[in-house]
């Protein structure tokens, strides 16, 4: 059956063709999602096909997203051009030091920072850009200073669409913006705040035929759901007890939940792992809502703050989807401080793995959930690291040299600090420094 776009509001429940250029329900404004796939193959044949494709040199098979294309039925593979830069294919890494830090026997990281532009945004963007190209769009746009703009720029450029990035004037994060500039994005700094710009871009998109690749784009969720398919494939379909992931706009956890439910419906797995979302303390509206009676409105945070800028989101667009997925999986939501994120990040770094600050919320949150008795120390756990260590070198240098401060100016202790040491040009003195270092390990 061909895919449709479904309105998530049960009272509306409108359906639309995937060819329509809409991002939310035109009737009621609710989020849209792509209908579940109904592949022609059974579970055993799907597993066999997906595994065999790892031997193939065909571009679609080499992509860790499109290898699982039976889950992505909104593309006409006989006709549409798939926009891929071989995203996905990210490793599962055993992390004994991080496990010990969290207080569990074993921990595996699914490291999405190994993607072409260095974050899991690529898993979604390949799907969004493919749809944009199929719709004949000439420009693609997003409002973001972060990994979304870096990824969007790369995928739009690959698709032959002009990438356009909108950002609030005077609010620039250089590392990620640099990627967008390099990938050729027209970068517009608008003299307005984030919400005003979002409203403006929506009007522009409709008038000028620009394809919007913001977080609400339902096809990005479709691409990201294959992260769970790839993770399970790498584990020979053994379902973990927990999947832990940082939450900002909550698109990723929504995608994971949808993907896992679909794999279960197809008989590929027989149970769901529990999903744990971790937010930064001052950007944690979903944590507050999840642990409340949920009677009132969603408690958006007006001025979200965290040095983990990828999860600095006060009003996450995908919270209704995330709530459904976390609830249905029997999962939970945790929140962590800036100090906890910074220390967890250094532990992941010292393991030889490394990640960007938002990713470290995964380990910091797991440690808390174990201490609270929510996650058992013998549980089978996959922690998702969302971005590459090189995304935020400034943070790293400041932490290790003891000058990192929270957005409120409170100092962050370099618990696992590793500052460079100036030494004289003297082999004996240097040998002594090395001996002292080794003795201190
Ligand atoms: C976007 C992003 C997040 C947050 O993901 P959501 O889907 O918005 O919850 C976390 N970490 C990194 C590195 C990101 O780029
Ligand atoms: Zn609707």
Keywords:
single chain, binds zinc ion, six-stranded mixed beta sheet
What can you see in these coordinates?
By secondary structure, the chain is α/β, with parallel strands linked by helices. It has a six-stranded mixed beta sheet, sandwiched between helices. A four-stranded parallel beta sheet has the order 8-7-6-9, sandwiched between helices. α4 packs parallel to α5 and α9 packs across α11. The longest helix is centred in the middle third of the chain and has 17 residues. The mean pLDDT is 96. Zinc ion (ZN) binds next to loops.
SSE layout and pairing:
Layout: E1 4-7, E2 15-17, E3 32-34, H1 43-52, H2 59-62, E4 92-94, H3 96-102, E5 108-111, H4 121-134, E6 139-143, H5 147-159, E7 162-168, H6 174-182, E8 186-190, H7 194-208, E9 210-212, H8 218-234, E10 242-246, H9 251-265, E11 274-280, H10 285-290, H11 319-328, E12 332-336, H12 338-350, H13 357-371, E13 381-385, H14 393-400, H15 427-439
Parallel strand pairs: 5-13, 6-7, 6-9, 7-8, 10-11, 10-13, 11-12
Antiparallel strand pairs: 1-2, 1-3, 4-5
Bound molecules: pyridoxal-5'-phosphate and zinc ion (ZN).
Zinc ion (ZN) binds at residues 7, 9, 12, 14, 25, 27-28, 30.
Task: Summarize the entry for a quick read.
The chain is α/β, with parallel strands linked by helices and 441 residues long. Helices cover 38% and strands 13% of the residues.
């Amino acid at each position: 059956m061909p895919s449709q776009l479904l309105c998530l509001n049960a009272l509306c429940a409108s359906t639309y063709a995937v060819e329509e250029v809409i991002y939310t329900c035109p009737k009621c404004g609710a989020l849209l999602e792509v209908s579940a796939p109904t592949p022609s193959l059974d579970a055993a044949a799907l597993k066999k096909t997906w595994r065999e494709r790892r031997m193939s040199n065909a571009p679609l098979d080499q992509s860790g997203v499109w290898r699982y294309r039976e889950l992505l039925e909104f593309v006409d593979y006989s006709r549409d051009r798939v926009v891929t830069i071989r995203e996905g294919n990210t490793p599962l890494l055993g992390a004994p030091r991080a496990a010990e830090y969290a207080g569990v026997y074993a921990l595996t990281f699914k490291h999405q920072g190994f993607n072409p532009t260095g974050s899991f945004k690529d898993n979604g963007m390949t799907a969004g850009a493919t749809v944009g190209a199929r719709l004949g769009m000439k420009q693609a746009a997003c409002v973001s200073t972060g990994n979304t703009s870096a990824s969007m720029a790369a995928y739009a450029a690959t698709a032959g669409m002009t990438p356009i990035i909108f950002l609030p004037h005077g609010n620039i994060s250089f590392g990620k913006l640099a990627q967008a500039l390099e990938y050729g994005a027209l970068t517009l700094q608008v003299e307005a705040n984030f919400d005003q710009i979002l409203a403006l871009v929506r009007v522009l998109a409709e008038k000028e035929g620009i394809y919007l690749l913001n977080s609400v784009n339902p096809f990005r969720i479709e691409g990201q759901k294959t992260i769970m398919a790839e993770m399970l494939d790498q584990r020979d379909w053994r379902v973990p007890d927990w999947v832990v992931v940082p939450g900002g706009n909550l698109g990723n956890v929504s995608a994971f939940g949808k993907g896992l439910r679909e794999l279960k419906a197809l008989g590929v797995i027989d149970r769901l792992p529990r999903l744990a979302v971790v937010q930064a303390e001052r950007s944690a509206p979903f944590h507050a809502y999840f642990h409340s009676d949920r009677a009132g409105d969603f408690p958006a945070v007006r001025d979200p703050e965290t040095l983990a800028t990828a999860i600095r989101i006060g009003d996450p667009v995908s919270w209704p989807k995330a709530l459904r997925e976390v609830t249905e999986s029997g999962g939970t939501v945790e929140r962590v401080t800036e100090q906890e994120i910074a220390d967890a990040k250094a532990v992941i770094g010292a393991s030889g793995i490394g990640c960007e600050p938002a990713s470290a919320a995964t380990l910091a949150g797991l440690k808390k959930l174990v201490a609270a008795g929510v996650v058992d120390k013998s549980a089978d756990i996959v922690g998702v690291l969302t971005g590459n260590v090189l995304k935020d070198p400034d943070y790293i240098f400041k932490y290790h040299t003891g000058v990192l401060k929270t957005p409120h100016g409170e100092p962050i202790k370099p618990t696992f600090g590793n500052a460079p040491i100036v030494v004289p040009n003297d082999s004996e003195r240097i040998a002594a420094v090395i001996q002292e270092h080794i003795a201190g390990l």
